Amino acid sequence: xxxxxxxxxxxxxxAVELGSIRQAAQAHATSHQAASxxxxxxEQHLGVRLLHRTTRSLTLTEEGRTFLExxxxxxxxxxxxxxxxxxxxxxxxxxxRIVGPKSCFAPILMPVLDAFCTTYPGIKPDVQLxxxxxxxxxxxxxxxFRIGTSAHESVISRQxxxxxxxxxxxxxxxxxxxxxxxxxxxxxxxxxxxxxxPTGKVSPWFxxxxxxxEHRLMAPALATNDIELELQAILAGQVIGQAxxxxxxxxxxxxxxxxxxxxxxxxPMSLHVYYGSxxxxxxxxxxxxxxxxxxxxxxxxxxxxEKELSSALQQWKRSRKHHxx
Length: 325
Fold this sequence. Notes:
Helix content: 40-55%
Distance between the termini: 97 Å
Structural class: alpha+beta
Number of strands: 14
């Protein structure tokens, strides 16, 4: 025989409390017949009679009294657990597990996370940055970020902003080696290449050529599996490199990097946020997703318009011409 339901036990307790099965049925928004049947099935499962029933009165048997005394604390504990779960769901505090790419992502996440934690100091972030793709469900992720859409069909994905790849050099490099004006010119220049850490393979440059995105491997003057080291080498004037707009944009705007070969700039992918169904999400998770979308969707801080790119290159040319004079 199946274990009696909590509802059957609650019906029994409510009937004793109100002195009537009919009133217990009304309190639980069910029929008198269904309530009577639930109590009868409970008695059948226990193998004892719990109630003496007459048309006018309802009294406990000795077995019913013992059962009631033992079950009431358990029901009260269950009610407390359910209430706590509801309060926790609706409270913007507690752990927030976030995953994202290791490359380039920390400067994007931190301002959003800082503002969110300042508003909700009870939040306890648990952030894992990794360029590999883990199992979203097994890792118990609340919110994830990925360059490209999530590989997991069970999650919702929202595009935040395009991931531009811009060929860049520092003013120091261009003053020393000159400005390449075509892809063929790059054969005579020092180029950097990123080595993808999980596989050790060199990642080609992504270039827009005649309206299509093509991959091209360069003869590397520098190869590294660290994005930050590559960026520092470009800034130091050691190499020309292809940098992501999320890190290059502020440096280009500050004149520390010069975008070159503008016609080959491309955005082959985008940064996405992904998460599970919003129906059962804790309030803290929903609030963080809303903060991310509000702050990062089409955020101009990490994307450069064609006009900005052209203006930055022209500014460097004017500066160089001025120094010659």
